[in-house]
Amino acid sequence: MKFDDVITIKDIAKALNLSTSTVSRALRGRYEISAETKKMVLEYAERMNYRPNLIALSLKEQRSKAIGIVVSEIANNFFSQAINGIESIAYNRGYHVIITQSHESRDREMVNVQHLVSRNVDGLLLSFSCETTDISYFQQLHEKGFPMVQFDRVMEELDTHKVIADNYQGAFHATEHLISRGFRKIGHITSTNNLNITRERLQGYKDALLKHHIPYDEELVKHCNRGGMIYEEVEEAVESLFFNKSKIDALFTAGDRLTTVCLSALKNVQNKYKQVGFIGFTNTNLADLFTPSVSVVRQPAFEIGQRATELLIEMIESKKPITDFEQEVLSSHLIVRDSSKPL
Questions:
Q1: What pLDDT, on the 0 to 100 scale, is given for residue 222?
Q2: Contact present, 196 and 202 (Cβ < 8 Å)
Q3: Each residue of 246-295: pLDDT tens digit?
Q4: Across residues 51-74, what is the average pLDDT?
Q5: How far is it, in rounded angstroms, from Cα 168 to Cα 174?
Q6: Is the separation of the CB atoms in 54 and 92 below 8 Å?
């Protein structure tokens, strides 16, 4: 087959010695097809660059075959990797994705969501902005049966499927790691308390201190309510930690953008980066290129995106309303490098 030829379900079926109906069901993730067959079909389809005929599918199933994605910003390493995971599932299942960015603005988030709904997307993948507290519009959509799945930044009051990283354990292990290396005055830079990830990571930080009999000092915790979107906000937080009476010897940051911006701010605050222990939540692939290389808590962003998409498509294609929802928690991983070496 030539590179520019369009591969069809019939081509896949012939190549794998399967029926076209089996291939079609496997591509749609139907329960009656074995996991082994699904894997074989999906891998072959991806290798051959198969793309479903979205127009034909949407006419047949009376759906737009589009999924709306709502995130704070694509430039965030976590979200860019999560979107890759979303697309890896969506396109093989015959769905197009429409990506929107809130830039941590609740108003922009609302405009984006209303636009997506007006465009008749089949469902939404939601990760809320720092400013979002009023979710009444989302509750209304949910009550009408509109398919939604939350990921990463979730609202407990909104009873839908949720897919998140283990924020508490990630923060606990990061803080305990710094303690094990001899650090005792550990500063914590985090985002707004509106976000579940802020609260869960702060609790992990607190409990690690408690376990090792280190008093919690609220002066060592700084909230950057825009989540690192405003450089000056992060720089001010860093400066205040170094120049207050409880001078820190290590720093733990609780977000992807916060971590990368904080590394820059540390260099501008009397070049403190090389003088303190450091660890942060980030999925950047450049962490080992810094000097010293950066210890990080890495989240399974790609897998979170994949699982959230699988759950959403199950809701969209279900023959009856889904009323039982689950929260799936995927493990984060601590990667130790030179920035947290012993005192």
A1: 96
A2: no
A3: 689 999 999 999 999 998 888 776 565 567 899 999 998 888 888 889 99
A4: 73
A5: 10
A6: no
- Tell which CATH architecture fits domain 62-164+301-330: 3-Layer(aba) Sandwich (3.40)
Q: Give the DSSP per-residue string, 102-162.
A: -TT-HHHHHHHHHHHHHTT-SEEEE---TT----HHHHHHHHTT--EEEESS--TTS-SEE
Q: What is the CA radius of gyration of the chain?
A: 23
Distinct helix (H) and strand (E) counts, the chain: 12, 12
The token pair at 139 is: 């509750």
At CA 286, angle to CA 76 and CA 79, rounded to 5? 20
Q: Tell which CATH architecture fits domain 167-300+333-340.
A: 3-Layer(aba) Sandwich (3.40)
Would you state the CATH architecture of domain 1-50?
Orthogonal Bundle (1.10)
**Closest to 295 measured CA to CA, from 235, 329, 253, 247:** 253
Contact 169, 299 (CB under 8 A): no
